C-alpha cells in the first residue's frame, strides 16, 4: 500500500493536468512521462521542524495522484536525494566522522548538483573508490560494498523502495574501469527510481523524520531554492529555469532537486504558496527531444498551481 491515498477530486484534476500537457506537447509520448503529486490538507504536518515523531507522522493520511508512479526510470541527479539521506544516516550513527571536506561535498552535491562532489559522498558511504578493473575476488567485495546504500533503503521497509537501484555514481563524461564494468554491458545496473519512491523520500524529509528532526532540517536548508534569478550565483546549477520553480508565483517558497541528461529531465519539489495548500510534485520526463525541452516541466508546474487554486484551503 502506497504512502498516499487517492480520491476522486485529485484523480479528476490529475487527469486534466495530463490531458492539458499532452495537448500542449503532442510529441511527449504517454510512456515518456511519470508524475506523483501529493497535497497537504490541514492540519499540515510537514515543514514543522520535526515537531512530531516518525510514528505519529506516518499516521497522518495524505492524498495524492500518480501517473506511472511505479515505473522504473533513470533518475539522473535525483538520486542525490537518496545519497543525501544516507550520508546523514551514517553521520547520525557515527559510522563515519564529520569533516569539513565531507560537508563541502554534501553541500555541493545538492546545491550545485556536482557530480564530483557526489563521487566523494558515494565513496564515503560505501568505502569504495573508482579506478581500474579489479580481479574477480576483490571486485565481488567492492560490488557488495557499493550495494550498502541499497540495503539501507531496503531496510526501511517502504513498498515504494522495493524496486529501486541506487548504487552508481553520477557522471559528466561517463564511467571508466571498475565503474563501467559495474554498470553492466547493457547498463542494466544503472540507477533506477520511480516518482513514487522519490515522493516518499522527499515526504519524509519535509516531514522532519528523515534520520532525525535536526538532520531533516539540515537537508531542507540545502534543498531551499530562490525564485529570484539574481540570487543564483554563476557557480551554482540553475535548478529553477526549465523546472518546477520557473512557473511558481514570486511569493512561493520551494525546496527541490532537479536532474537532467541528454535523455531525461526530472524535478522533485515541495511548494508552499500563500493562502493555498502546500504540495509535493515529482515529474520525470524521458526522451532526447523532451530532455532538451525546457518548457514541459514548467508547463506542468503551472497547471498544477492552477489546480491547487481549485482546492478549498
Mean pLDDT: 95
Order of helices and strands: HEHEHHHHHHHHEEEEHH
Backbone structural class: alpha+beta
The number of helical segments is: 12
Spatial strand order of the main sheet = 2-1-6-5-4-3
Count of beta strands: 6
Describe the structure.
The chain is an alpha+beta fold and 313 residues long. It has a domain at 8-224: Beta-lactamase. The protein contains twelve helices and six strands. It has helices at residues 8-24, 54-57, 80-92, 100-111, 115-126, 136-146, 148-155, 178-183, 195-206, 213-223, 288-291, 296-309, and strands at residues 33-39, 63-67, 224-225, 253-260, 264-272, 279-286. It has a six-stranded antiparallel beta sheet with strand order 2-1-6-5-4-3, sandwiched between helices. The longest helix is centred in the first third of the chain and has 17 residues, at 8-24. The radius of gyration is 19 Å and the shape is globular. The two termini are 27 Å apart. The model has no long low-confidence stretch (mean pLDDT 95).
Amino acid at each position: 500500500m502506497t504512502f498516499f491515498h487517492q480520491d476522486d477530486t485529485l484523480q479528476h484534476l490529475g487527469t486534466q493536468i495530463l490531458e492539458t500537457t499532452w495537448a500542449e506537447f503532442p510529441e511527449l509520448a504517454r510512456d515518456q512521462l511519470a508524475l506523483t503529486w501529493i497535497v497537504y490538507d490541514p492540519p499540515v504536518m510537514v515543514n514543522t521542524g520535526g515537531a512530531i515523531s516518525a510514528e505519529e507522522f506516518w499516521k497522518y493520511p495524505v492524498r495524492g495522484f500518480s501517473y506511472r508512479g511505479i515505473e522504473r526510470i533513470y533518475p539522473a541527479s535525483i538520486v542525490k536525494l537518496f545519497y543525501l539521506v544516507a550520508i546523514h544516516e551514517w553521520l547520525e550513527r557515527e559510522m563515519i566522522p564529520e569533516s569539513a571536506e565531507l560537508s563541502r561535498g554534501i553541500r555541493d552535491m545538492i546545491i550545485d548538483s556536482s557530480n564530483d562532489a557526489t563521487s566523494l559522498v558515494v565513496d564515503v558511504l560505501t568505502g569504495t573508490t573508482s579506478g581500474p578493473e579489479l580481479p574477480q575476488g576483490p571486485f565481488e567485495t567492492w560490488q557488495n560494498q557499493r550495494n550498502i546504500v541499497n540495503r539501507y533503503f531496503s531496510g526501511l521497509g517502504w513498498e515504494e523502495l522495493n524496486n529501486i537501484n541506487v548504487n552508481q555514481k553520477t557522471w559528466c563524461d561517463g564511467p571508466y574501469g571498475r565503474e563501467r564494468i559495474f554498470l553492466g554491458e547493457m547498463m542494466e545496473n544503472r540507477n533506477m527510481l520511480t516518482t513514487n519512491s522519490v515522493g516518499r523520500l522527499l515526504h519524509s524529509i519535509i516531514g522532519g523524520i528523515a534520520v532525525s528532526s535536526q538532520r531533516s532540517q539540515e537537508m531542507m536548508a540545502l534543498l531551499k531554492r530562490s525564485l529570484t534569478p539574481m540570487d543564483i550565483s554563476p557557480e551554482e546549477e540553475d535548478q529553477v529555469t526549465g523546472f518546477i520553480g520557473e512557473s511558481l508565483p514570486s511569493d512561493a517558497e520551494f525546496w527541490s532537486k532537479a536532474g537532467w541528461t541528454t535523455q531525461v529531465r526530472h524535478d522533485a519539489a515541495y511548494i508552499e504558496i500563500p493562502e493555498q495548500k502546500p504540495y509535493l510534485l515529482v515529474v520525470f520526463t524521458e526522451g532526447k527531444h523532451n530532455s532538451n525541452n525546457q518548457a514541459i516541466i514548467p508547463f506542468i508546474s503551472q497547471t498544477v498551481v492552477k489546480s491547487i487554486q481549485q482546492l478549498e484551503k
